[in-house]
# Entry
Amino acid sequence: MDITVNGTAYTLDLPDDTPLLWALRDGLGITGVKYGCGIAQCGACTVHIDGEAVRSCQVALADTWGEVTTIEGLGTPDALHVVQQAWIAHQVAQCGYCQSGQIMQAVDLLNTNPEPTDEEIDQAMSGNVCRCATYPRIRAAIHDAAIMMREA
Amino acid sequence: MSRLGKYTRRGFLIASVAVAGGVVFGVRTYRANLENPLTAAISPGEAALTPYVKITADGITIITPRAEMGQGIHTTLAALVAEELDVDLADITVDHGPPSSAYFNGGVVEEGYPFPATDQSALAEFARAQRDIPAVFLAYQITGGSTSTHDAYEKMRQAGAVARETLKAVAAKRTGLAIARLETQSGAVVLPDGTRLPYTDLAADAAEVELADTPRLRPKSAWRILGQSQDRVDVVAKSTGTAIYASDIRLPGMRFGVIRRSPYLRGAIRSFDPSEALAMQGVDAVLDIGTAVVAIAETTWAAMQALDAVIYDWEPPAYPLDTEGHFEVIAAAFTPDHQDSRQRNDGDVEEALSGADVIAAEYRVPYLAHATMEPMSAAALFQDGSLRIWTGCQGPTVARREAALAAGIAQEAVTLTTTLLGGGFGRRGEMDFVQNVAKVAVQMEGTPVLLSYSREDDTSRGPYRPAAIGRFRAAVKDGVPVAVDVSTASPSILTGISERGGSPAPTPGFLPDFTIGQALWDQPYGIENYRVTAYKADPLLPVGFWRSVGASQNTFFHECMMDELAVAAARDPIDMRRDLITDDASRKVLDAVADMADWGTAPAQGRARGVAFALVFGAPTAQIIEVEDTPQGIKVAHVWVAADVGVALDPRNLDAQLISGVNFGLSAAIGEKITLSEGMVAQSNYHDYPPLRMYQAPPVTTRILENAPHIRGIGEPGTPGAAPALANAVFALTGQRIRTLPLGDSIAFA
# Structure
C-alpha cells in the first residue's frame, strides 16, 4: 500500500481496512496523531487529506484518497504554523493529548473561513473533545490566528 | 561523594551528590522529620534523597518529581528552583525523574531519565540512600490531592538557593574573590568586572565544596519568576505533536497489545477460545494474564480486531445487576454498623431537631468515569531478568512495586520511566495498566510491547468515582440554620485501591476512609447544632480517586442543602453563608465572587444564578453560575469563580486550572453517568458518556486571592462547586429542585 505523508512517500504492508490512524501510528511511527475513541466522537485523530480535515480513525488505509498531512507536517518547533504560534501565545495546552487534533481542525476551519465568529468556531470545533476544557483559549487562539493569517 | 547541608526549619536537608561532569542537588529527609506511620520501618539516620536540580557541562536539568497531567506542575515546580537558582526557564530542561534513580540497570538502560547511563556511580549513591525505604520516597512521589505546590514550595526553592550559593563558592575558590562580591544571573556567576562564569562550567567542582548553609529564601517582593505567568515548559511540544505520552513510545521490533477485561467488573475469566483470533492476519498471540485477555499484533487495530474474535466465558458478577440495586446497597449503609466516621458533632442535633419544623431531603450522584483523552497505556520490555516500563502514572514508586509483584521479580529489576500523562484526574493513580503491562511483558520476553486500553474498555470497566447518597435533616430559625444533620454514604475508595494494589500501604476495610466524608465535615460554617456522619457502603463496582475525590459528591450535597435552607429561611444564599462562615479567607472569596458577578443586581429576564462555596484541599473556593432559558434548553451562560491559594505562583496557570476544574464539574453535572444493565456498564465511549464540548463551555471569569495562610494547589478546587452552583441556578430559574445527578436526566440543557 503506497501512501504519502507529510511529503514523504511510504509503502506499507498492512491490511487494506486498517484505519489510517493506526497505519500512521503503528505502521509509520508518526505519533502526533492520537487515538481517543476510534468512532469519530473526539477528533484527537484529525489529520488532513489533500488539505481537508478528516478523522483518521474512519478512513481505511486503502481509501486514503490523497496526500496526508499530520501535525508533524503542519509545522515544527523550529518552523511553527501560524495556528501553532497562536496556540503557544495563548498557552492553550494542558495535558495536550487532544491538541494535535484541535490544531488540525482549526487550520481546516481557517482555510475555509478566514474570519469565523464565536458561533462558527463552536460549530467547527465541537467535534473535538478536550477533557481539560481548554475551550476558551482555543477560541481565543483561533481568533488571533485568523488575524495573523489575514495579515500575512 | 555526598555533601549535606543543614536542616531547614521544616525538617528537611539539602544535599548534593557528584555525577559525571557535574552535581545533583536534592532534598534528604530523615525519618524523625516525617510524621508518617509508613516510615516506621526506617531506622533513624537512614535517608532518602530526592534529586531536584542537576548541573553538568551539558546543561541544567530541573527534576520535577510530580506527574505532568496537564496541570502545569512541571512549569511551576521548575519556576520554584529557577527563582532561587537564577536561571531562565527557557534555558533549562525539565524532567519527571525516575521513581528511584537507584534502580537503573546499565545492561538494559540506554536512555535513562534523567541521567545518562554514564552516571552509574552517582546513581549508586542514590541507591544506597533509597534502598529499603520506599515509604519515605512514597511520601513525595504521589501526585494528587492538589498537594504538589504545597509540598514543593519550600523544598525546591531551597534546593535552588543552595545550588546557587554552592556554585558561587566554586567561583570564589577559582577566582580568589570573596563570595560576597559575586552575583548570579541567567545561569552564570557574575564577577565584579562583569565576567560570566556559566554554572555549566562550574558544576564539575561543585560536589567538592562544602554546601552552603541553608540560605535565606528570597522574599516575595524580590521575586522575578514566581508570581508572574510563565510559558509552560511543555507548550511547544504539545502544540507540535512532539510531546511523548506512554502510547507514543516506539521501540525497535515493538508489537502492539490491546486488553479485554471482564465486563463483570472484578470478575475472573472462566475460559476463552482464541482460535479464530489467532488465525487473523498480523496477530501474534492471545495471552491469558489472569484477570484479562490481551491480544498481541502488528498494529493496535489488528489486536482490537483479534479481541473481538475471541469467545469469552466470564465469571458472573458478585454485585447487583442494575443501577437501582447498587443504590439500594448504598442506601442500606445509613446504619450505625456502617458508620465510618463522625468528624463533626457540635451541640445536640437530636435535641435541636425535636419539635422543630424539620426540612429533610436526599441527594444522589452516579458512578463517574474519568474519560481521560488518552486511554490507559504503558510500554514495556522484559529482557535478561529486567523489566523496563514507560508509562504516565501518578504514583511511580507504587507502580514499580506493583510491576515487580506482577512480574514476579525484585523491585531492583524494574526501571520505570514516567512519560507525560494524557490526562489523569485520579485514573492514573490506579495501577491496573502497570500490573497488566508487566504480565504481558514477561509473557512476551525479549519483545517490546505497547499495551493500550480501547476507549470501550477504559469507559466500561472502571474504576469509577463512587456512586453516593447524601441526606440531611435541618431546621432554621430567625433566618439562620440552627440545626443541621448531614450524612453521606458510599463504597470505600481506599479499601478498593488497597485490594487492587494501588495504595502505598494497606488500608483494610476496618480503618476509616477519609474520602467518604471529605469536604462535608470540615466546612467553615458555624452552626449551633451541626453533625456530619459518613457511612461506608459494602463494596460494589471498583471505585477510585476522581478529580476532587469525596468533595465531588459531598460539596453537591452540602451546598444544595445550604441553598434549600436559605430558601426555607427566606434569605439571600450568599448573605446567609456570610453570616455562618467563621473563616476570614473563606468569607473573602464569597465577597469576591459576589462582586465579580454583580450579585446584588438582578440577572436579565430569562436568566438566574446559583452559588456554591467549598473549602477543599485547603483552598476556599466560591462560584456563581448564571443560566439562561433558551428554546434548546438551559444554557450555562457564565461562571464566576474565586479561589484563595495563599500564594499565587503563576496567575495564568491558576486561571487555566480553575476553568478546567469548573468545566470538569459542569461536564459531570450536566451529562455524565455510569449505569448498569444486566451486570454490565451501559456506557462505552464518548457517544454515550458525553464530555463537555466547546459549544457548551461557558465563559468563566476567575479571581485568585491570597489571604489564606498556606500555599495551596488549584488542580481540583474548581470542580466540586460546579454541580451545586448549577443545580441551585436551575432551581432559581425554574423552581425545580433537582436532587439527582446528572441534572440532564431531569431537565434539558442546550
